Amino acid sequence: MTPPPGSFDPSHADEPELLDLLEEASHSESPVMLLDIASTMLAAFGPDDDDDEEAEELPPISELALQMLEATPEETEPLVRIWAQMLDDMLFGRRIAKMLPTPNTKRLPEWIRRADEIRPFRAAALVSPVKIEETILLEISTAGRSATLAVAVDRTGSPYLEDAYLAAGPLSSLVEFSRTDLPAPVDVVTLSLPDAAARLSEALEMSTHMLPPIETESWPGTRPLLEWMLRKLPDSGTGYEIRMWEPEEIDELVKDFRASRFAEELTEEEIEHAHLLFDFQCNYGNNDPLRWSGTFVERLMCDLYPRKVMAPEDNLLTMPSALAALVRYANDRSGVDRSFTDNALAAIEDNREEYTARVRGDHLGGESTMDLFTRLLTGRDNDDSIFSSDFDDVIADESFLSDHASKLAEIFVGSGAEAVGGIEALKALTEEPLPAEGLDTGGVAEDVVDRLNSLVPEIWRIADEVFDEPELATAALRFLTTIGRGDPAIFRRRIADRSLLAALFWIVGKDNNLFSSQWGSESDMTIGELQRHLGVSTSPKAHAEKMLRAAGFELDEPQVVLGDPRYLISRRRQRIVADRDTYWDDLPEDWEDWAD
Questions:
Q1: In 3-state terms, what secondary structure has residue 120?
Q2: Tens digit of each residue's pLDDT (9 = 90 or more) over 433-475
């Protein structure tokens, strides 16, 4: 849904026009205008902007509120009453309560006088049939008329909030609008308040890490309002569930597609793209291989496929024909509205020229074959990376290895140096196994120590029974305390232990190259198997990203490189040492100076 234009500019906060706006908002039949002003000003003046250079010139919101009450008490009282509830600051609320006059029943609407009763009332989601986006509707009940907070969520990959705005009227009016006035159909899903809270919290958390930061006419102005409502919602709900598709399931889809009327005119070479296309939709799209949109088609053709699939040029250029047939098949089988299929097919044609240019490497900023080879060898396209069947043949070609010995040495030795934290660390690296050790809680916040200790027996069990790598327990325990020292708040949240453990072993497992999807791994372990062992239905990735940030790392999607031998088991060390000793003599003479 498209948000309405914003109604308030916080830059006018110190001008006379503000008082006129407050007067109008206070006497409006709808609470929307006053709530919007209160939230937008709070976003502009609030404590969250302490690091913003422009915000340094603005007074704290508590100081501003007191100044406003002293200067123009009658005009600004409605705004300050809303702030007293919207801010998560009990001391501020008490100070304001002492200063506020007894409300004049004739002067202030009842809903403002009873601002402490404002609460979320019901929730629903308007979901695109192709699951690429949704709008969560949260109806806000006041003592007067209702308002509805509409939160737009992009569900490509990890769901994130891309906008939020306030609309007048109850949730039912927006649902009716969606059924009659939107250009494309949507599915209306009723949400419990706990589930709405879980989805909103997850989307909001993910949006805070988007670069560049998300900015629209209404966001982040509505963030304080959303956070206020989230504090009033129950926290026992279920968020977005990301299904892990097994290779056998994708094989069945490919088999069915091959036998369908949609693939009748495709060559065998074209049909071979189907498995990869389904995989991309599962892992990078909407997580449903049978629902396709023009938005994802564009991303697939202009980025994912030409960047991630290593295959001969002639083979890659046959992909769009396979994609067009697969889109028709998938959307027909799932029964989505024909308009989505038409949109996706149009996107294929619109982006065909760009795709061809990227495959041939003649687009602006394109990477060379050697750049691509380097990226693949260093494992930067795994998480569940996709390689062509020709890849093993390429690296087994002795003439190729001879011609590119220096480059290969840089790749293998360089990736080893990155894994252990630098060239000197690589030179000093040994194959010694990690010792068995307990949990070192030194420097960890006291209130989370008991929870960390409660995880220790399961960590040892998982390392031994699931991975058959007892050393991995030491790596996991060490990283667990690194998180606890960095930002213990993550352990204060209501995240199930099994979800925390899945995320923890997702991190240390990837750092040690223990999943079969990682290039060069000799393991049969899959992330899906880890989930099944721990009874986790959703991907550990979202929690893992939060844990990495808490420990001071950023996920170099989709790679996990902790850059410290303290977390590396002997099997991983042996491979790094072997590559170092094998390729060191082939390095260029000035490589160490360049690498430093």
A1: strand
A2: 999 999 998 889 888 999 999 999 999 999 999 999 999 999 9
User: In which domain, by residue range, is 555 found?
Assistant: 446-568
Q: Please identify, among 353, 368, 383, the residue that sits at the C-terminal boundary of a domain.
A: 368
| Whole-structure pTM value | 0.59
500 lies in some domain? yes
Q: Are residues 135 and 208 in the same domain?
A: yes
Give a yes or no: residue 357 inside a domain: yes
Q: Which residue type does 263 have?
A: A
CA nearest to 548, candidates 495, 596, 580, 506: 506
| Nearest C-alpha neighbor of 160 from the set 119, 201, 196, 127 | 201
Sheet of 187-191, strands arranged across: 160-168, 147-154, 133-141, 119-127, 187-191
**Residue 373 included in any domain:** no
Query: Are 144 and 185 in a shared domain?
Result: yes
Q: Is 205 within the bounds of a domain?
A: yes
Q: Is residue 220 reached through a cis peptide bond, with omega within 30 degrees of 0 on the bond before it?
A: yes
Cis peptide before 212 (omega within 30 of 0): yes
In whole angstroms, give the CA distance from residue 338 to residue 320: 19
Q: Are residues 125 and 90 in the same domain?
A: no
- Check pLDDT > 80 for residue 524: no
Identify which of 255, 271, 275 has the alpha carbon closest to the alpha carbon of residue 263. 271
The CA dihedral of 359, 362, 364, 366, to the nearest 10 degrees, is: 50
Number of domains in the chain: 4
Written as one string, the DSSP assignment of 217-244 is: SSTTTTHHHHHHHHHHS-S----PPPP-
261 contacts: CB under 8 Å, gap ≥ 6:
none
By DSSP bridging, strand 147-154 and strand 133-141 are antiparallel
